[in-house]
Batch of 2 targets.
Target 1
Amino acid sequence: MASPNGGVTTYDYDDSDSAAPVRAQTIEELHSLQRKAAATTKDGASPLQSISASLASLAREYGPNLVKGDPEAKVAPVPVKHQQPSATIASSDSSLKFTHVLYNLSPAELYEQAFGQKKSSFITSTGALATLSGAKTGRSPRDKRVVKDETTEKELWWGKGSPNIEMDERQFVINRERALDYLNSLDKVYVNDQFLNWDPENRIKVRIITSRAYHALFMHNMCIRPTEEELETFGTPDFTIYNAGEFPANRYANYMTSSTSINISLARREMVILGTQYAGEMKKGLFGVMHYLMPKRGILSLHSGCNMGKEGDVALFFGLSGTGKTTLSTDHNRLLIGDDEHCWSDNGVSNIEGGCYAKCIDLSQEKEPDIWNAIKFGTVLENVVFNERTREVDYADKSITENTRAAYPIEFIPNALIPCVGPHPKNVILLACDAYGVLPPVSKLNLAQTMYHFISGYTAIVAGTEDGIKEPTATFSACFGAAFIMYHPTKYAAMLAEKMQKYGATGWLVNTGWSGGRYGVGSRIKLPYTRKIIDAIHSGELLTANYKKTEVFGLEIPTGIDGVPSEILDPVNTWTDKAAYKETLLKLAGLFKNNFEVFATYKIGDDSSLTDQILAAGPNF
Ligand SMILES: Nc1ncnc2c1ncn2[C@@H]1O[C@H](COP(=O)(O)OP(=O)(O)OP(=O)(O)O)[C@@H](O)[C@H]1O
Ligand SMILES: O=C([O-])CC(=O)C(=O)O
Ligand SMILES: [Ca+2]
Ligand SMILES: [Mn+2]
C-alpha cells in the first residue's frame, strides 16, 4: 500500500464501532446475556421429588440431599424436600452433602458435561461425540442376574440355556444400596426420564440415573424423547436403571462371580449396573424388561430390525449380532421403523426405541451412506479411533475393539418413519452370517421351517482376529436373542407362529455370510448382492420365482434373481472342492441337530401338529 504521508502507514481504524454498545456493565453480565433462559416447568420441584424417592436409601430412613442444576453454575443450592423427617438433625455425613441432579439435559449440554468429566470425550470432524466405554467394550451376559422370587420362579425360564441367572431379593437390595451410595457420593448425577415403545397404548416410562454424561446422551438417543409437556406430567417411572458402572460390584457378595454385575428385579421394577460402562447394557437390559412385560399383554417382543415400503409392506429382519439387522433395515428406498427392538401386537408393529445403535467397523460412505451421514452432532461414537489433529475417524481401526458403535436418534436417518409404527409384517427375514459358507444366500421357508430356524437362532462368527484360528464358530441363540428373553423360547415361538399365520407373513432365510468356501477360503457375500436379494423379497419377485430344493437342509432356493449372479444362489456351485462342501454341510447340519435336541420335548402353542412339523423341518441326513 502506498503511504501518502511520508512513510507512516495509517489504517482506517475506528475504536468506536458504529453499532450500539452491548447492554452489559461487566463481563459476567455479558455472558449471562448470551444464554436465553429456557422455559421452566410449572412445578420445578416435582420431578426432583420423584428423583429423590428413586435415589433414597432402603437401609436408612431418609433420602439424599438433591438439588437441581450444575454445581458449576454457582447458584446457591436449594434442596428439595425429601423423605427425611422434617426438621431433623443430620444423622450422617452423607446427608450433609448435596448431590446435583442434571435432569434431561440437551445433547449440547451433555457434550459440555462430557468434556469436563473425562479425558476420553472428544468431538470428531463431523461433530459426533467420541467416547470410551472403559475396560468393557461389549455386553457381559454371564454377569447378568435376575431376582428369583415366588412369582419369577414360576414365570421365567431358568436353568440350562437360559440367560436368567438367579440372585435373591436381599442380594439385589445390597447391590442397589452399593450403587446408590456411589451415586449419592458424587457431586452430580444425570437423570433421564424417557419412554419405550411407540405404540401409545403400550408405552413404558423409564428413568435412567447415571454418573456419566455420555451414558445420559446415549440413552437420550436410544430411548424415545419426551416433549416438554410430557415431562411435566411424567410422574413415577415404570422402571428405573441405576447405572453405577464406574464402580465395581463386590465379588465376595453372594451370587457374584466377577466385579461386573447387571441385576434386574422385576418386582421392584429396577435394574442396577456395577462394574461395566458399556452403554449397550442399559439398552439391552430394558429390552429384557420388555420381553417380560409385553408378552403378558399378548404382544410379541422381537430382536429385529423393521422397515416399510412406500406401499405399506412391512418387513422384519431377525438375526444375531453382526448379521445385518441395522445395515439391511436402513434402506434408502424404504421407510425405517427401527433397527433392533420391536413389538408385534394386534395393531401391527412398533419400535421400542427412539434410536439406532449401528456397528461401525469398516463403515464406508459408499456402501452405507445413511449410517455414515447420521454420524454428526448429537451422535455418540463408542470406542472408535480418530486422528489426533484432524479428528477424522478411522473406521477400519480395531485397536480398541471390533465392536465400535454409533448411537444416534432415529430422526438422523432421512427416511425414518415417525412415529415408528407400521401395519402387520408381510415378510419375516431371518438373517444368518454363515461362516461355513454352506447356507444358500436366500431360501423361502414354510411356517414350520421359519419356526425351526427362529428357535435355532443360528449364526456363525469367524474366530476373532487371532493368528492360526481358521474354524468358524457356530452360535445358536433361541429367538435370535436368547440373551434377552425372559420366558421359555417356545412362548415367543408360539406367538410368532400364531401372528404369521393370522396375518399371512412369508418367512425367508438369508445368509449374509460366506460363499465359495468357508471362512478363510471363500469370501463374504457382497453387500450389494444381499441388497438385491432383499429387494426381490420386498417387491414380491421372489414369491413367483422358480425354486429347487437343497439336500440335507431341504431349503427352497430360487434359480434366478435380477442383479444377482445365478451361480451363487446354490452354494454347491461356488465351492471348487465338492467333497469339502458336503463334509461342511453335514457338519453344520449335525450342529443344528444337537442344538435342537433340548427343544424336542416341548410343545409349541396349542396345536401339537405344528410341533411335529417343526421337529421335521430341520436338516435330514
Ligand atoms: N452381505 C452382507 N449383508 C449384511 N451385512 C454385511 C454384508 N457384508 C458385510 N456386512 C457388514 O456386516 C455388518 C452387519 O452389522 P449390523 O450392524 O447390521 O448388525 P446387527 O444385526 O444390527 O447387529 P446388532 O444386533 O449387534 O446391532 C456391517 O458392518 C455390514 O457392513
Ligand atoms: O446390545 C448390544 O450391545 C448390541 C446389540 O445390538 C446386540 O448385541 O444385539
Ligand atoms: Ca444393530
Ligand atoms: Mn441387537
Target 2
Amino acid sequence: MNMQKKSQLPLNDGNANKKRKALCSKETLVKLLRWHFGYPDFRGMQLDAIQAVLSGKDCFCLMPTGGGKSMCFQIPALAKSGIVLVVCPLIALMENQVMALKEKGIAAEFLSSTKTMDAKTKIHEDLDSGKPSTRLLYVTPELIATPGFMSKLTKVYARGLLNLIAIDEAHCISSWGHDFRPSYRKLSSLRSHLPDVPILALTATAVPKVQKDVVESLQMENPLILKSSFNRPNIYYEVRYKDLLGDVFADLSNTLKSLGDVCAIVYCLERSVCDDLAANLSQSGISCAAYHAGLNNKMRTSVLDDWISARIKVVVATVAFGGGVIDQAKMLCDRAFLVAKGRDSMIVQQCTIINYIFDPLFGIDRKDVRIVCHFNIPKSMESFYQESGRAGRDQLPSRSLLYYGVDDRKRMEFILRKSGSKKLESSGSQEESSKTSLIAFNQMVEYCEGSGCRRKRILESFGEQVTASLCGKTCDACRHPNLVARYLEDLTTACALRQKNGSSRVFITRNGRYHMQNMVSFVTLFNKDIRYGYKDGTLRHLFAQGCAFNSTDAIDRDQLSEFWNRDEVASGSEEDISDSDGNGNEVVNNLTRSKLQSRLGVNEKLAMLQQAEENYYRNNNTHKQSNKVDKNAISDSMREASRQRLQNALKQVQQRLENFKYALHLSC
Ligand SMILES: Nc1ncnc2c1ncn2[C@@H]1O[C@H](COP(=O)(O)OP(=O)(O)OP(=O)(O)O)[C@@H](O)[C@H]1O
C-alpha cells in the first residue's frame, strides 16, 4: 500500500485539560485540516461539531450526503493523543476509510472478523499499552455488544485514553430511520460503561423522530444539535411525465447525448429494465453498462471499475429494492474486491449496509456525476435525496431528472403494501409499517404531481423552512411554471381517460399529438412492446412483451393476455387492430408459434407485421380514402420503427449472449 508518511503536528502532549482551549481554537484546527488533508478551510458546521466534542460536549450532527461528516471525528482524533472510537455499520467501509487515512499517514485501524489473528493481536496490544499509537479505531456495533470488547474499552477509558465515540450513520439506531439496524440499539450501553466520553452522532437522515430517537437511545446529555441545510444548490431538479412522452427511452437517450461525454447514473426499479436500458443506450452510442445484483461478482466489479475509472460514462443501476441478503452479500464482495485492489482514492469512505439495499452505488465516490436519472419513481423522498445527491459532489452544476409514470406509482404502492404484509409475519406491525412507507412514498408522488417548487418540496419534507427565492429557478417548476402546469393538466386528463378506457395506456405527446385526428398513429415504447395510439388517446398493443423479439424466453397465452386490453377486445372497437378482423391476434399467434417452433428472421416478422397492417387498412379503407396519404406516411414510419425495434432487440439478444459467454469464460 502506498503509505504516505507524514509527521505529526506538535499540538499535544497528553495534558488535554490544560491545552483544551488552545486545541479548540479555530486556528489550530484549520492548521490540522490543512496539514493532514490539504483543505483550506472547514465546510458548513464541521468546525462547530469539532469544537463541541473537543470541549467534551455531546453533539448530534446532521449533514447532507457528501457534506464531510467524517472530518468531524477525524480532526478531533488528530488534535489529542488517545483514541477516537468510530462505530461504522459496514466492514468494507471501515476498510475504506482506514486505508484512506493510512495513506495520509494517520494511525487508523479497524477491528473485524476479516482481520488475521496476528493483526488483531497487534491492535489489542496497542490498546493495552499505556500510550497507544492508534488514533482512530473503527469497529462495528456488533463488536461493541460483545462483553470482551466492552471490557477492553473500559480499560482504555479508565486510563483516560478514550477521547470520543463517533457513531456514524446514527440513524441506524432509530426504527424511524430508513435503514434501521437492530444491533445499533445496543450502543445505548456505551454511556453507562463510559460515562464521560463525549458522543458524536452523525447522520444524513433528517426526520425529526430519528433525531429524538438517536439522542434518547444513546443517552446523550444536552447535546449540541447541528443541522446543515439539505439544499443542494448545484443540482437542477426536473420531472418528466412518462404518460405524456411518446418514447421515454428515446427521451432519456437524447437527454444523455445532449449532455455530451458526461458521467451519469440511471436508476431503475427492476433488473430487466436495467439490462434493457443499458443495452439500448449502448446501441444508441452511449458508453454504458448495467449494474445490479443479478450479474455475477466479476461482471459487477468490472462494471464498477470501468465506471469509476471513466471507461464507461453511464451506469444503469437498480435501486435493488427488496434485494435479499444474497444480493447485499454480492454487492459487498464487489466493494471488498475494489478495496483490495486499492482503488481507494476513487471510492468514497463511507457507506451503510442498508444503502446497498436501496442504492448499490452508495459509497462510490465519483464526484463528477453530472446527471442522475430516475427511470422509476423512488420509494421515498429520503431515497430520492440520497440517490439524486450522487450528482455534483464536486459542487459543480448538475441535474436530477425523474421520469414519473402513473403505472410506476401504482406498482410502487403495491410493493410497499406487500412489503408491509411481509413484515407482519415477523413483527406483527403490518399496518403501521405499510402506512409509514406509503406516507413516505406519498411525499414523492406529491413531488412529481405537484406544481410548486421541487427544491422547496424536498427541503420541506426534511422539515426545513424555505423562502420562495431560495430556488432561483433551479428546478423545472420554477423555471417553466406554465409548461409544468400544462403537463400536469395533461396528466390529469390522461389519467381520467385511462380510467374511462380500462387498462389502456394513454398516449399524449408534448406536441399535442393526442389531439390528432388520424385514426391511428404508431408508437413504439421502450418496454419491448409495440402499441398503436388512437385518436381517443388510448393505446392498443399489437405484440405482447417479448413475444416478437426475445428469442430465448418461453411465452404462454396468459403472459400474452396481460398485454391486451380485454375490455376493448370484448367491446369490438372497429378501430382495434387486435380485434377488428383477427389479424392482430393472428400475428401474435403466428409469432408465438414461431417462437416456440422455429426462430423467424427479422424480415419474416416484419412481413407479418406489414401483412397485418395492410389487411387492417384494406378492411377499413372505404370511408377513409381521404386519409390515405397520412396513413401511408404513418405506415412508412411504422415499418421503419418496427424494423429498428426488431433490429435493436436482436442486437440486445446478441449482447446478452456475449455477456453470457463472458460470464461463462470467467467462471471457467
Ligand atoms: N472542509 C472540507 N473541504 C473540502 N473537502 C472536504 C472537506 N471536508 C470533507 N471534504 C471532502 O468531502 C468528501 C465527502 O466527505 P465525507 O465522505 O466525509 O462526506 P459524508 O458527509 O460522510 O458523505 P456521505 O454521507 O455521502 O458519505 C470527501 O471527499 C472529503 O474528503
